[in-house]
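During the reporting period, our protein records have gained a structure token line. A sample record is set out beneath this paragraph:
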Amino acid sequence: MDQSQSRPAEGAVSDAPPAPARLPRSIAIVADRIRWRVRPDLDSPGLRRILGAPDATLAASPDQMAHSKLVTMARLPPLVPSGAPLLMRRLNYGRFRHWLRDTFRPTRAERAFRFGWELEVLGIPTARVYAAGVERRLRHPVRAYLITEFVTRATTLHELFAHQKTLSGVQLKNLASCLARLHRAGYSQRDLKAYNILMVDSVQPCFIDLDGVQKFPVITESLAVRDLARLSQEFLGQPREFQRLAPRFLKHYCQVRGRPGDFRVLHDKVLRKLGSRYAVPSR
């Protein structure tokens, strides 16, 4: 079949997205001047205690993971004996542009909560979200919080590739499949870096840090290229491996998207998007 017949007009790499995620109404709670949104299926007395004293909970955690003018983050124990540990993140708004942007839109914590819930409903692997909260004064955000599941037995894709210097066939296909499913559902991750993808048991990708996610009616070719080029940047330090892995990744990505005929176009456009950052390795 002629490729021009198999491909729709520019901007339509995507097949029809699945039905949008339908979420139940979240529970609204106000505690300590913080307005919380809580998933009704995950509400519990233990979670309510955290919401009532989030700063004290962070300070008391023996497993502090980060503390800066931008973010404070700590691992919390499970809410029930057989449950998963939690990860609590507080946005401290030490950067003016974050403060200004979140003044006129839902905070990054609230967006990550919403998108994380939607992706879980759609079956796209991500850390389970429990609650998000924000304190505002005269509309300006003072602090914002996100509580999610702490994903165990996982390392970031960045750390995995730095250790292995390559990706196995299973790892590559799973990663391509997850990104294709994200795009098929109409979601783009403009900050698709390897630090924002966990590899559970070294093989199963899991998207985290979802405040950079955007929802579109359809993922256009330009959006797909943007995300693919951003992820590709993480592997340019190993140019020979990138040259070997990139075509395999893109072929599987296009197959899962249901657009195998788009492989060559996407491959060429991603390389052009990378520009001078991609140097063809010498033989």
Notes: Confidence is low (pLDDT under 50) at residues 1-14. Residues 153-277 form a domain with the Transferase(Phosphotransferase); domain 1 fold (CATH 1.10.510.10). The longest helix spans residues 239-256.
